[in-house]
Specification:
By secondary structure, this protein is of the alpha/beta class. It contains 14 helices and twelve strands. Strands 1, 2, 3, 4, 5 and 11 form a six-stranded mixed beta sheet that branches. The chain has a four-stranded mixed beta sheet with strand order 9-6-10-12. Strand 1 and strand 2 form a beta hairpin. The longest helix is centred in the C-terminal third of the chain and has 35 residues. The protein binds beta-D-galactopyranuronic acid. Beta-D-galactopyranuronic acid binds next to loops.
Length: about 325
């Protein structure tokens, strides 16, 4: 089901769940990455497992490569129930579920381990609750490493090097503020448009983790990757709340277990892929550099935090909870 023509994908776009001949319910799933990407592989493993444990009552399918639309559009489609399930990054989710913006604050997590501890415990539950209220049920959390800046012009060593450069960011005003504070110019843009925009000079750079930088082929046109690790954003394996409500209690337990297993697999594949992607981009001539003073990037974020807390005083505790996580 993962290989599908654009025409076929579009023609089924409006159908969330389709009752099959034997009464099986098809769950159409949105995936932004290619078939061999850790997230997509883990989604397919989830799909296979769910079909097995529900004895075909639920048969999730995976539409890879963002063929069913951009991430902001897909989020809306899952909310409305037009799509049954997806793997979403929490970045573009902030515009819809304000609490998830906390996960888009630059340097909110010390490292990926801390992110896992937080998301797998009580903190993660708070985000799940906020998502459920917006019509999206997070069944488990995937890894997305940490994001750094890359560009077509030169290595970035300090924020001053970003002066005057135009960077694509995901759809969230916090990222615009982040790039502003670093001295660059931000352009929110869909993931699928970045390659061409880098190639034609519409933008000078973007930011992402190694696997996305590599699998999207952005490294072919933006040859400088500077390690800032400014964002560590978890991703969910999510189901439309309206679809989830229709599942029996027994199947819910089995599907939730399959989602936890899928997340374990994703994290393992992720760890492997990060190294593979880094080697691949380096071998192709990409210059990867450490920045001179990582703290200079972090301290520039003061106004972003101040503005955020002033506008969202109710989220200050959640920020504190994350910062207090081991
Ligand atoms: C990737 C993430 C995608 C998408 C993309 C982007 O790392 O897995 O869901 O958010 O980044 O930059 O748009």
């Amino acid at each position: 089901m993962m290989k599908i023509s654009k025409f076929a994908a579009v023609s089924v776009l409006a159908l969330t769940t389709v009752a099959g001949a034997a009464g099986a319910e098809e769950w159409r799933g949105w995936a932004i990455h290619p078939e061999d990407y850790p997230n997509t592989v883990a989604m397919q493993a989830f799909a296979d497992k769910v079909a097995e444990v529900t004895e075909g009552r639920v048969t999730p399918t995976v539409y890879a490569n963002g063929i069913l639309g951009s991430q902001p559009d897909a989020i809306e489609q899952v909310r409305s129930g037009a799509l049954a399930w997806a793997n979403f990054n929490m970045g573009p989710m902030g515009e819809i579920v304000p609490a998830t913006n906390v996960l888009s604050l630059p340097f909110i997590f010390r490292d990926v381990d801390q992110m896992h501890h937080a998301m797998d415990g009580a903190v993660g539950q708070q985000f799940s609750d906020a998502l459920t209220e917006a019509g999206i049920v997070a069944l488990s959390w995937y890894d997305s490493g940490s994001r750094s800046f890359y560009n077509t012009k030169k290595p970035i060593h300090s924020p001053a090097d970003m002066e005057g450069m135009k960077f694509r960011v995901m759809n969230n005003d916090l990222y615009v503020q982040m790039v502003d504070q670093l001295g660059g110019n931000a352009t929110p843009m869909a993931y699928g448009e970045v390659y061409q925009s880098l190639q034609t000079g519409v933008i000078d750079g973007a930011e992402n983790n190694y696997p996305s930088y590599e699998s999207s082929n952005h490294y072919e046109v933006a040859k400088y990757y500077s390690i800032t690790n400014h964002l560590i954003i978890p991703e969910c394996l999510c189901v439309a709340a309206s679809v989830w409500e229709g599942v029996s209690d027994e199947d819910k337990v089995a599907i939730k277990a399959a989602a936890m297993e899928s997340a374990q697999l994703q994290r393992q594949l992720w760890a492997e892929r990060e190294g593979v992607s880094l080697e691949k981009v380096k071998a192709s001539g990409v210059e990867v550099n450490n920045v001179d003073d990582p703290a200079a990037f972090q301290s520039a974020m003061g106004p972003v935090y101040d503005g955020f807390i002033a506008a969202n005083p109710d989220l200050a505790q959640l920020i504190a909870d994350i910062q207090a996580t081991e």
